[in-house]
Amino acid sequence: MKLFPAFHDLAGKTVVIVGSGEVASRKGRLVAAAGARLVFAGAGLDRDLVEEWRDRAEFDARALSAKIFEGAALAFICVDDEGEAARLARAARAAGAAVNVVDRPDLSDFITPSIIDRGDVVVAVSTGGAAPVLGRRLREKIEALLPKRLTALAAFAKSFRSAVASRLPVARRRAFWESFFDGPIAHRILSGDESGAREAMIEAINHPLSDQAVGVVHIVGAGPGDPDLLTLKALRLLQSADVILYDRLVSDGILDLARRDALRLYVGKARSGHAVPQAEIEQRLIEHARLGRIVVRLKGGDPFVFGRGGEEVDAVRAAGVPVFVTPGVTAATGCAAAAGVPLTHRGVSQAVTFVTGHAKGNGEPELDWRSLATLGHTLVVYMGVAKADVIARRLIENGRAKSTPVAVIENGATDRQKVLKGALTDLGSIVRAGDIKGPALLIIGEVAAKANSETLADFARIERLAA
Ligand SMILES: C[S@@+](CC[C@H](N)C(=O)[O-])C[C@H]1O[C@@H](n2cnc3c(N)ncnc32)[C@H](O)[C@@H]1O
């Protein structure tokens, strides 16, 4: 380690910044966030800087001498002239201030790291002055991993510090806090349920040995398959889950991102077509949470779009277990983006409707065909492959042109994506001739003509060439 990191208490202390322009302002923003008294020094400070700091800093227009540094804890020297910078650095040091000369680590007592500021939680990244841009990039990566509500979590922990200290003997405190930060109460704070977390915390402090600790269930959307389409929040939850119950549509690439020692339970359809009944899935979520675990229910796409997420939320909530929902990219938007189909497009399509093509047995989907057949309207059908013929027939009967463009997207947004396009009247044959079996979406409407794909004839030709 070249430089030793230490955090400086600047509350009420004086920081002198010599120089002007954006660099000086930026340094000002850093130290102002720590409660310092700020003085910008030098004649001819630029107008923007004075405007920005008018009511929050002082300005010292005296000639630059050792005097302006008297009483300063830190001094930032933001001047271009090297000789002048060295002279000012000496003067500031002689006045007792620690000095930073911008872009000159060799003239500085300290350097400013890249900072992630979450209230009491601060992460500082330094490359010892070797590569500030690398430092900034690392900061961006770390920033993406840290939940936005970390500030609230730290404030919550602070508010309970003395209560924990008075209730628990020293030997048990550390373990208590370890399990707090890994556990369901912290998850509730990070999910925005502070009052629930407060109640649970009081219970945990009053009954620290209780085995009644209730965990938490997160119902999480995994998107259409590409791990890059996971939300940052979904990724964080996967990495902290004790138990993950997942569906058939969740790809291996996504499961690979989960915590190594998490218990993974498959609850999707088996090869036999037999699926774990919904009531049993709900029961398992509740049982695992009642063991004090962080449970992630991982579902393809978005849990609230044809995902039965609402039923799971109701069941878990009715059992008195806290439950939160993290959205995911639904198949319609994920597949449309992957195939180059804008679901609405100015002058072409003014509305989009998501429907399910699912129907009981040999029946047909119960849909309002007349309104779905409106021109200038995109229709996205989930689970519609088996009913492609009847869907096309009903739309045509209700006024949609036979030539309306359609796109069939199988395994969209994955490396097995297949996209076929053609006319509405051929929808059933496209599905059959394209041998569409996997999860697939039907997109019906003028925008489907934009799909980056082969027509059925092209597709057959390509298949023949590949064979
Ligand atoms: C039970 S629904 C679940 C939908 C999911 N909750 C969502 O928001 O995407 C399953 C249907 O979603 C569609 N689907 C899901 N993932 C897909 C993908 N990667 N490519 C094409 N269709 C997909 C298919 O129509 C599939 O039959």
What labels describe this entry?
Rossmann fold; 4 domains; Cobalt-precorrin-4 Transmethylase, domain 1; binds S-adenosylmethionine; 19% strand; alpha/beta; 467 residues
Q: How would you describe this structure to a colleague?
A:
This protein is of the alpha/beta class and 467 residues long. It has four domains: 14-112, Rossmann fold; 149-211, no CATH class; 214-329, Tetrapyrrole methylase, N-terminal domain (Cobalt-precorrin-4 Transmethylase, domain 1, 3-Layer(aba) Sandwich), CATH 3.40.1010; 332-450, Methyltransferase, Cobalt-precorrin-4 Transmethylase, Domain 2. The chain is 37% helix and 19% strand. The protein has a six-stranded mixed β-sheet, with helices on both faces. Strands 3-2-1-4-5 form a five-stranded parallel β-sheet, sandwiched between helices. A five-stranded parallel β-sheet has the order 10-9-11-8-12, with helices on both faces. Helix 3 links the parallel strand 4 and strand 5 (98-101). S-adenosylmethionine binds at residues 224-225, 249, 299-302, 305-307, 330-331, 335, 382-383, 409, 411-414, 439-441.
